[in-house]
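Per your request, structure below.
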């Protein structure tokens, strides 16, 4: 390994300076080559897909044959010119004008912070530049994104620019979906995926360079990666790390990595006029709709970008816009396009497509269009001023997505989106006073506001013993750390001294939240991994039920047929089994109002989990129809979410006393069967606190698996027994602590 690293280092030193001189030429060559490859790509779509060993001539021949077959010559020609423009577009991006300087700085410095306005080409171009400069010879060029959608959409775009099929030279990886192959040189991925890769390969040897994109977002995984990658850079002199950020924070990043250079991509933006609301806005959805309509009906051409907080609001906003336009006589056409992470990929891609002539586009998006995705042609931004963020909710005792006012940095980013193609306008649905006095300067980084369970498991298994010692840019509040450690401790993942237990070590291997990982391992203990695998997979995908507005009753009836009365988890299991019995058929799903795509996704997740189980030498076991054990496994990992019956459909959380309700869509609802004790997957707050995905459990199981919290009411005899048990446990704990203290003292002495 050392040998390989050294030769890579030499590569930089020796050939680095030579390459700087030929960059001008390479760009042209690359252009031609990419055009040729693009043609080959056209052919590949036809189906036979083999690469071309004979060189470009053959590409053209095959492409011509393809065009004969599929298209008229003129269409093929326009295809070709489209390819040219995609390359021309590349040359028009701001980052292109500083390409050589940028590559020089990267060559001379192991770590560089790159700052540039959104849309300057950081995400799509830098990976390609590195590749074109030859970095790909020594390993992959990775680029991390805090959001799945961004990773997928950018990889797609870059594969088109390079002229290859997505998943070959250019690919992406997100949790449960790996679209890369042996040829992959440019890999986009979520920061979570790279973080998990450091578990398997602590020096990331497969990569020669990593771009940590959107670092200003300060996502939890990015923050942890900062510390890990900083170490890797110090161990591997051949490794390059590039951190990109929107204008803010760059100094902070540079300082963290030891005063590394900051490279600025000169922006080319137009002025944006911002208009605040004069009075506080009561209903921002309504306000946004009105504003967008006013723009559409009375302002000159230019597309509109609306910022909303989440899917429901976005759908509501799109619906209202359409409805009101329909009511107007001869209103000009408006192409209304929603954009959120759960939207199917083909619909997401529509926001980048050009609308028909004289049709205005109106994109209604979550925060994802703030910096992750850039759409050209926006001249108007309408900003509701709020954002959905994951925060730890002490009342629920878990993370929840909640709506908060944006930060000033956030709303300024948003307004900037109006000035990419010409002078624009941003309409803010909040007052200037609110902007100045109610908004924070920047968002609180995720690491300081969410549950750290996953991160703690991961760092512990990377042998970071004392988390307070880890090199965090902004350390999490100690209280957060302790709370999250407590949760891991009650699950049995950490021992009394805060070290990983055997169970904890196994849990880390699964890319799942700790309780789900534990559920799988309990499934192993109880001999029902096959069933638990299905339950876990179904919980890892969006809801499978399809409920079209015009056929609600029919679809509800179809759903009810699958109900297993004591459990929503088992209902999911039942659905999956039925689907499998029906040969995983799509028409069967359609008949039963189930989303086939989502079920397929669950099947994929399941098979990936099976791979991990096999690697861990955990056999696949099944209880057949003995589903009580399945409920026990669920109980053993979710006993912290236990509730006790209080009234009809009404429960209270056993530990916190918070009221929580059965959701009307639950299998347990309205069947005349309400068990005394249930556990739930999560609590969601809409009009009330609803438990989502509920399973009835035996109180004895709670006492067995959750003995940290629960005991069965005691008679004198059992009381004696319990006291004895507690005394033994306390002694064991003391002994454990003793050993730990002694080890620590010895270690200190050695130092
Ligand atoms: O990362 P940064 O914000 O600096 O820019 P980028 O994402 O690399 O975008 C550069 C250009 O690529 C923009 O003009 C986008 O419109 C275009 N792009 C696209 O057309 N389709 C995508 N899926 C992503 C980017
Ligand atoms: Mg970007």
């Amino acid at each position: 390994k050392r040998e390989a690293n050294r030769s890579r280092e030499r590569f930089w030193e020796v050939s680095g300076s030579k390459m700087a001189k030929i960059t001008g030429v390479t760009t042209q060559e690359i252009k031609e080559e990419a055009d040729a490859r693009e043609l080959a790509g056209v052919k590949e779509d036809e189906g036979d897909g083999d690469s071309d060993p004979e060189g470009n001539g053959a590409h053209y021949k095959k492409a011509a044959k393809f065009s004969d077959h599929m298209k008229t010559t003129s269409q093929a020609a326009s295809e070709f010119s489209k390819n040219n423009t995609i390359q021309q577009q590349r040359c028009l991006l701001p980052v292109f004008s500083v390409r050589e300087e940028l590559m020089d700085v990267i060559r001379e410095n192991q770590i560089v912070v790159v700052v540039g306005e959104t849309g300057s080409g950081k995400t799509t171009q830098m990976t390609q530049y590195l590749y074109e400069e030859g970095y790909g010879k020594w390993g992959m060029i990775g680029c991390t994104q805090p959001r799945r959608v961004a990773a997928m959409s950018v990889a797609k775009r870059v594969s088109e620019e390079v002229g290859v099929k997505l998943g070959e030279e250019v690919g992406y990886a997100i949790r449960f979906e790996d679209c890369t192959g042996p040829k992959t040189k440019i890999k986009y991925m979520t920061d979570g995926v790279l973080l998990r890769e450091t578990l398997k390969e602590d020096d990331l040897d497969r990569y020669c360079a990593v771009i940590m994109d959107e670092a200003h977002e300060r996502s939890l995984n990015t923050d942890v990666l900062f510390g890990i990658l900083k170490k890797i850079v110090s161990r591997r002199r051949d490794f390059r790390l590039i951190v990109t950020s929107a204008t803010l924070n760059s100094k902070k990043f540079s300082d963290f990595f030891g005063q590394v250079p900051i490279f600025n991509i000169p922006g080319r933006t137009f002025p944006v006029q911002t208009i605040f609301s004069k009075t506080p806005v009561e209903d921002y959805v309504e306000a946004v709709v009105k504003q967008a309509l006013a723009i559409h009906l009375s302002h000159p051409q230019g597309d509109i970008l609306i910022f909303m907080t989440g899917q429901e609001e976005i759908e509501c906003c799109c619906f209202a816009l359409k409805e009101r336009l329909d009511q107007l006589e001869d209103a000009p056409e408006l192409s209304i396009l929603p954009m959120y992470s759960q939207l199917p990929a083909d619909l997401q891609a529509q926001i980048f497509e050009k609308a028909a002539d004289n049709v205005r586009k109106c994109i209604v998006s979550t925060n994802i269009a703030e910096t992750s995705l850039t759409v050209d042609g926006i001249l108007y931004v309408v900003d509701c001023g709020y954002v959905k963020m994951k925060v730890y909710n002490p009342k629920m005792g878990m993370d929840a997505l909640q709506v908060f006012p944006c930060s000033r940095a956030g709303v300024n980013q948003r307004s900037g989106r109006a000035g990419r193609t010409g002078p624009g306008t941003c309409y803010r649905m909040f007052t200037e006073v609110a902007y100045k006095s109610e908004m924070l300067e920047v968002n609180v980084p995720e690491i300081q506001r969410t549950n750290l369970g996953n991160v703690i498991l991961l760092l512990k298994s990377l042998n970071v013993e004392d988390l307070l010692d880890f090199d965090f840019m902004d350390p999490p509040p100690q209280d957060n750390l302790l709370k999250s450690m407590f949760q891991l401790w009650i699950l049995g993942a950490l021992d009394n001294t805060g070290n990983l237990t055997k169970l904890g070590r196994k849990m880390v291997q699964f890319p799942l939240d700790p309780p789900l990982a534990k559920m799988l391992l309990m499934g192993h203990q109880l001999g029902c991994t096959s069933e638990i695998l299905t339950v876990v997979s179904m919980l890892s995908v969006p809801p499978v039920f399809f409920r079209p507005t015009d056929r609600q009753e029919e679809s509800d009836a179809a759903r009810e047929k699958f109900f297993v009365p004591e459990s929503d988890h088992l209902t999911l299991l039942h659905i999956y089994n039925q689907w499998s019995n029906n040969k995983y058929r799509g028409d069967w799903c359609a008949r039963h109002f189930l989303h086939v795509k989502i079920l397929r996704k669950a099947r994929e997740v399941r098979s990936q989990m099976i791979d991990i189980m096999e690697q861990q030498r955990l056999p696949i076991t099944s209880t057949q129809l003995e589903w009580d054990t399945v409920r026990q496994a669920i109980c053993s990992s979710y006993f912290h979410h236990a509730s006790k019956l209080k009234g009809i459909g009404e429960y209270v959380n056993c530990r916190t006393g918070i009221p929580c309700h059965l959701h009307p869509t639950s299998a347990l609802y309205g069947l005349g069967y309400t068990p005394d004790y249930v556990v739930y997957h999560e609590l969601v707050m809409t009009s009330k606190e609803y438990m989502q995905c509920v399973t009835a459990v035996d109180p004895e199981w709670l006492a067995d698996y959750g003995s940290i919290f629960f005991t069965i009411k005691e008679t004198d005899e059992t009381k004696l027994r319990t006291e004895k048990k507690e005394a033994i446990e306390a002694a064991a704990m003391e002994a454990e602590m003793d050993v730990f203290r002694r080890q620590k003292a010895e270690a200190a002495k050695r130092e």
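The chain has a mean pLDDT of 84.

Regards,
D.
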